[in-house]
Amino acid sequence: MSNTKDTENINELLQIRRNKLNELRELGVEPYGIDRFERTNNTFDIKKMYEQFEGKVVTIAGRIMSKRGHGKASFADLQDREGRIQLYFKLDIVGNKNYEIFKLLDIGDIIGVTGEVFKSKTGEITLRVQDFKLLSKSLQILPEKWHGLKDPDLRYRQRYTDLIINPDVKEIFLKRTAIIKAIREFLDNKGFIEVETPMLHTVAGGAAARPFITHHNALDIDMYLRIALELHLKRLIVGGLEKVYEMGRVFRNEGMDIRHNPEFTLLEVYEAYTDYYGMMELTENLFAYVVEKVNGNTKIIYQGTEIDLTPPWRRLSMIDAIKEYLNIDFDKVNTDEEAVEIAKKQHLEVREGMKKGDIIALVFDELVESHLLQPTFVIDYPVEISPLAKRKHDNPALTSRFEAFIYGREVANAFSELNDPIDQKERFIEQLKQREAGDEEAHMMDEDFINALEVGLPPTGGLGIGIDRLIMFMTDAYSIRDVILFPTMKPRIEQSEAED
C-alpha cells in the first residue's frame, strides 16, 4: 500500500514539473532554447580567491541544488564541476518577470547567472544575481539524501545522478583522471611509446580467460573482444619499437564481484633487453610515483589499513610464501599425485589432470595470497600456469614470473617473456589439449605470433597492471564498481514486464 502511495506522490511531483514547463513557455521562456552560454569563472575560484573577486561581477553556470526564502528575496545554491556557491535573488534587482521565472525553477534545473560577489550577513560567499537564464529544465526529481535510496545499485545505473548528488563520487573520478595522467607521464618520461592495438582479435590470447565472441559480417568470421594486450605488443617489440605500452579496455566473459568487472582497464608495458627483475623495479617505482604525484606521499589508507608503497617491495617465491604461511614445502613434493593429496587435505577442489604446478598455484591462490597486505612481489611461478613466460635456467619447472599483491589482491602480473618459438609452440599445443578437455580459459594457438617469435624477439620484460584496482586502493573504494563510471549491470525488469 505504501509503495503505491509513494508512486502516486512521485507521479504528482513529476507532473508539477511538466506543468511548470508549460508555464515557463507561456512566459516566453524556452527551457531548452539556449545553445551556448559563456562563463567567466567557476565556483571554486570565486570562493578560493574571494578577496580578488569581492565586488566584481562574474558569470557562472550550473545546477540548482537548493531553494529557500519567500516574498521579495530568495536564496539558492548553484553547483558546477568545481563546487557550490550561494545565489541571492532580489525582486527589485532582477525585475518582476525574472523573479516570476525564478519561482518556477526547481532543484535540478540548470541556469546561467551574472552577479556581484559579496558576503552575506552570515559570512557566506554569495552571488547577488543581476540576471539569469534558464539553460535546461529538469523534469526528474533529484533525491534529497542519496544514502536514503532503497535500491543500492541505483547509483551505478544512474551514475549521472550519483555524480550530481554525491561530491565524493565526483572526486573519485577526478582522481581517476589524475592517476591515469600520472601513469602516462611516468612511462613517457622513461622513453616508452604509447601505442594502440586492435580490440577485435581473430585469436583470443595473452591471458587465461573466456572471451566475448562477436561476428564480423563483411568477413563472415567470428571474432573475439580482446582479453589482453600482450601478443600484439610483443609483435611490436619484434618490430624494433623496444619500449611500448598501451592502456585500454579489455573484456573477459567471466564472473562479477567487488574486484571483477567484465570490461576493465588494463595497462601493459613491454621493454626489450630487460627481464622480470627490471619489471619489478618499474612496477614499484611506477606505483610510488603515481601515488605521491596524486596523493602527496607514498602511503595510503585502504579499508582502515595503512599501506606503504615506498620501494623496494618485499619479494618471495610462491613456494616460499606457501611454506611461510602454511608450513607446506612443495620443494619436497616429487610427484603430481603427492601434490593432489596435499590439496585434498586442505579441502581444495582439484580438477582432473592437474599437475604439481597447478596445485602449487591453487594452494597459493586459495590459502596464501589473502595474507599479503603490504606490497609484495611473489616470484617464480610454475610453468603450468605461465604459458607465455620464460623458464628459469636453474629450475625449468618454474618461470621468471611475478605477481604483485597489495591487501591480498593481485595488482600486477609480469615476466621475462618467452622468446623461444619452439618452446612457445609446445606450450600452446599443451594449452589446446586443456581446451579440448573442457578448459574454456586455456590459450588458443596463435600461428602468427609463433611466426613473429621465429623472426626474433629479443630478451624482453613484460608487465600488466589492473588500473581499476590501483584506483580502488588510491581512493579507498570497496568495490571496483565504485571506480568505473558505468559498470556492467543486469538490465532492470520494469514492473509492467515483471507482471507480464
Structure description:
The protein is of the alpha+beta class. It has two domains: 2-142, OB fold (Dihydrolipoamide Acetyltransferase, E2P); 165-313 and 374-482, Bira Bifunctional Protein, Domain 2 (BirA Bifunctional Protein, domain 2), CATH 3.30.930.10. Helices cover 36% and strands 26% of the residues. A hairpin with a 5-residue loop joins strand 4 and strand 5 (125-136). The longest helix is centred in the N-terminal third of the chain and has 25 residues, at 2-26. It is elongated. The protein starts with a helix and ends with a helix. Residues 146-150 have low confidence and may be disordered.
At a glance:
By secondary structure, the protein is an alpha+beta fold.
**In whole angstroms, how far apart are the ends?**
21 Å
Number of strands: 19
Q: What do the pLDDT scores average to?
A: 93
Point out poorly predicted stretches. 146-150
Secondary-structure arrangement, i.e. CATH architecture of the largest domain: 2-Layer Sandwich
Strand content: 25-35%
Tell me the CATH superfamily of the largest domain: Bira Bifunctional Protein, Domain 2
Q: Counting H and I runs of at least 4 residues, what is the number of helices?
A: 17
Oligomer: single chain
Q: Write down the overall geometry.
A: elongated
**CATH fold title of the largest domain:** BirA Bifunctional Protein, domain 2
Cofactor: Mg(2+)
Pfam families: tRNA-synt_2 (PF00152), tRNA_anti-codon (PF01336)
Subcellular location: Cytoplasm
Binding site for Mg(2+) 1: 403, 410
